[in-house]
Amino acid sequence: MKRIPFTLLAAVLTFSLGACGGGNQQTQPPAEKPATESPSTTAPSGSYDAATAETLFKNTCAGCHGQSLEGAVGPNLQKIGSELTKDQILEVLNKGKGAMPPGLVKGTDAENIAAWLADKK
């Protein structure tokens, strides 16, 4: 009887840890968009592609931070731009923080997500 709760706990932990570690896949950035791009993709924290940032977030970060940035295993990020700048968010993405491992997203993908998150206020 004691094996069932332990087995369930092991399965939940395995799933949780697996969800946070899936960021080793690199995605290709989309082709350049024309200068007549809608204002929803360019914001105060700099130029970024919101659709790509959201897709990257959902594929890499949502396992811990929730599909709507509501937080789960990781903290709520719905208003992270009120607390951290783009550069500070980028530093967390690059170096990790707490239980978050470093480098789940890298390069322009990390910059894109950091700019997108910085506008969440």
UniProtKB/TrEMBL annotation:
Q: Among its keywords, does the record have RNA-binding? A: no
Residues covered by region (Disordered): 21-48
One GO cellular component term of this record is: membrane
Give the record's PTM text.
Binds 1 heme c group covalently per subunit.
Which segment of the chain is annotated as a signal peptide? 1-21
Q: Which Gene3D superfamilies match?
A: Cytochrome c-like domain
Q: Which PROSITE patterns match?
A: CYTC (PS51007), PROKAR_LIPOPROTEIN (PS51257)
Q: Which named protein is this?
A: Cytochrome c
Q: Which organism is it from?
A: Brevibacillus parabrevis
